[in-house]
Write a structure and sequence with these properties.
Blueprint: H1 9-14, E1 23-25, E2 40-42, H2 45-63, H3 66-87, H4 97-104, E3 115-117, H5 119-122, E4 135-138, E5 141-144, H6 149-152, H7 167-172, H8 189-205, E6 207-212, H9 226-242
Parallel strand pairs: 3-6
Antiparallel strand pairs: 1-2, 4-5, 5-6
Length: about 240
């Protein structure tokens, strides 16, 4: 219901325009008599209409079957969820797996020259010790692959090659332990070409930090290994001793 205030007749006369939703009547001022400025107000007919509609809706909801009420509630929940999804800000783009993995790995150490070391000494750089660089060799040349620890480090797909001269395994794309050697004798032209591609990749991406003792860079077309060279040298020496 609308609330009314006590107003004098002069105040009513000075009003710019009557309120549309109220009907006001004021008592006239008589000479010599004080007339109270009480205004009798009545509520606009619209107030009862709104209350009546709410009552009708409530009565209809009470008389409706339970299934209808549940369906209406479910429909309202669906509409709310859809509207919330449309108005919600888009989620941030997912981060690439490579970026997350790089953050989880410790920072790569600066390449350190190890010089000429033996194959046994090279095995100490297989990634098992995080304080040491990750090394592997191709054709007797040692490279620091610490920046690719995700691939050549422990648990990586090429972890078997770390700390070794994996020339033969890379040429044949083999993961057999017997092929984890620098011996490339008996390889075909296709396998030697694949090995050359690997060598080019390593020289362009990784830092060369040393070489394996007793081996030297294998030139294209010459697949002689250290053992074969040693055998040939021994044969020459033996023939020289037998010569008169």
């Amino acid at each position: 219901m609308a609330a009314c205030s006590a107003l004098s007749a002069a105040t009513l006369r000075s009003a710019a325009a009557p309120v549309s939703r109220r009907r006001a009547t004021a008592s006239p001022r008589l000479p010599g008599k004080r007339v109270s400025g009480v205004v009798r107000c009545s509520a606009a007919p619209g107030g009862h209409g709104i209350s009546g509609k709410m009552a009708e809706l409530w009565q209809a909801a009470r008389s409706a079957p339970p299934g209808t009420v549940l369906a209406a509630v479910a429909a309202a929940a669906v509409v709310y969820k859809v509207a919330s999804g449309l108005l919600a800000p888009p989620p941030p783009p997912p981060r690439r797996r490579q970026e997350v993995a790089d953050e989880a790995l410790p920072p790569a150490l600066e390449p350190v020259q190890v010089g000429e070391i033996t194959a046994d000494e090279l095995r100490q750089y297989d990634g098992s010790d995080p304080e040491k660089p990750l090394l592997m060799a191709i054709k007797g040349q040692i490279y620091d692959v610490s920046q690719s620890r995700l691939f050549y480090g422990p648990g990586g797909p090429y972890a078997l090659f770390a700390g070794k001269d994996a020339s033969r395994a890379l040429a044949k794309m083999s993961f057999v332990p017997q092929d984890l050697t620098g011996d490339v004798s008996g390889l075909g032209s296709f396998e030697l070409s694949a090995l050359q591609d690997w060598e080019y990749k390593f020289t362009s991406k990784y830092v060369k930090v040393g070489s394996i003792k007793g081996t030297g860079p294998i030139e294209e077309g010459n697949v002689s290994t250290t053992s074969e060279i040693q055998e040939e040298a021994a044969a020459v020496k033996l023939n020289g001793e037998k010569a008169p």
